[in-house]
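Encode chain A's predicted structure.
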Amino acid sequence: MSKIVTFGELMLRLMPEGHHRFVQVNNFNAEFGGAEANVAVSLANYGMNSYFVTKLPEHEIGDSALNSIRRFGVKTDFIARGGDRLGIYFLEKGASQRGSLCIYDRKNSSFAESSSNDYDWNKIFKEAEWFHVTGVTPALSKKTAALAIEACKAAKAKGVTVSCDLNYRSKLWTKAQAKKTMSEIAKYVDVCVANEEDALNVFGIKTQKTNVDSGIIDKNAFIKTAQELSKRYGFKKVAITLRQSINADFNKWSALLYDGKEAFFSKEYSIQIVERVGAGDAFAGALIYGLIKQAEKDPDFKDTKSVVEFASAASCLKHTIEGDFNQVSVKEVLKLVNSDGTGRVSR
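Encoded structure for chain A:
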């Protein structure tokens, strides 16, 4: 079974009930989540040997965070303990023309203050096949930026395939900071995951003739963006998600996967959104699973087209599930891939 490692921060998520605004409520629902942890959970749900690496405070809230991923079968052998606090994010779910709002409270968290002494990369990457990180991790602090680069170097030295979701977060760092650090990380990346905004904000690559807010999607322009990313940074594969945001409740969703020679598009889904957070992570997790299964010559993943269809469908389903984690099985995703997507009752 493939050993897959992800590296990032696991946070406490606090959110008002339903679609209430922060200023309306006295109580918040508490859950856990975070980009790379979300990917780890997806892969564990698909039956993979999924390891999540982070640092958590050594108290009851840290224990709760740890248990939140253990329950899905994620391996926690290499999680360091210590520091003073768990990172937090507050989420106000949007509706119709009111977009969702995310507020971070994660400065000086245990993970943001972690160091090389907390992670033994030789042990972590022993017999590993895949390593995944996102642009969120290096954005947290100078320490985590150095750690992300260090981890990618160690993974490549072990012959591990490296994937990175650019995941630009303007509330965490500037475009200039992102370009400097992510350009260094890109040297070690085999598979890049992005959207048109990430490509522009991180690497200055603009997708022409496209405005996702107005619903204008030029597929040839997205292919050119994928080709430019691959050419400039040497990525073997580039996946780009295509989201048309009609409003906060209704999106159109599809994706492309460029394999260095040809680009393949998934079918487009019209989604009535329950939860948008974690959808990109669900795509990344399913993409990793699909590419590994394609290499293993699994009949359900016979070509690049079938891989991007699986990843897009998995992300589509995540939009219907509350919380950060995509709690679906391979069977459920394949069922959507091979159906008309009407959501009929299964009896």
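The CA atoms of residues 246 and 330 lie 29 Å apart.
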